Amino acid sequence: MKPHEYHRAESPHNLRIAVITASSSRYYKKIRNEAYVDESGENAVQILRELGHSVEYLGVVNDDIWMIRSTVLTALGEGFDVVVVTGGTGLSPRDVTIEALRPLFEKEVEGWGEIFRVESYREIGSAAALSRTTAGIVNGRLVVALPGSPEAVKLGLKLLGPEIPHIIHIARKT
């Protein structure tokens, strides 16, 4: 058995995962009690459940560094193994998810962003370079920032989803 196969075999198979959406437009609709659809958050929940995990949708937060960071830290404090944040990874001034999360990372999963952008390039071309998707380890847990488009969430979790248990196994190894 190859080392990565051994690690996968030892990895936890049913993780507790929280999904959060960072979006000013959806957040303001939420607080005004207006109807809105969070297709990206719904996609993430569905895909992660199909992979066999216990997933809880924590809702929409504003594109605000402190609100995003606080919500992620609360989820980690509540014992979630993984926190997935959709949205806020672009280049506009409101896109602050990366700035909210990077200071929390003990280790960053640099290769994740590279793989995502290569695969995204195959689908959408050079606009893939505009994504700042990232992932990192916080106290043996995984925090992932995915772009907010529904198709990007699908692609991201198609690529990263099967490796999540492996990542957790390695991050918690002593």
UniProtKB/TrEMBL annotation:
SUPFAM superfamilies (alphabetical): Molybdenum cofactor biosynthesis proteins
Residues of the MoaB/Mog domain: 18-167
Ranges that cross the membrane: none
InterPro entries per UniProt: MoaB, MoaB/Mog-like_dom_sf, MoaB/Mog_dom
Domain of life: Archaea
Gene3D superfamilies the record matches: MoaB/Mog-like domain
A Gene Ontology term for the protein's cellular component: cytosol
Gene Ontology annotations of biological process type: Mo-molybdopterin cofactor biosynthetic process
PANTHER family: MOLYBDENUM COFACTOR BIOSYNTHESIS PROTEIN B (PTHR43232)
Name assigned to this protein: Molybdenum cofactor biosynthesis protein MoaB
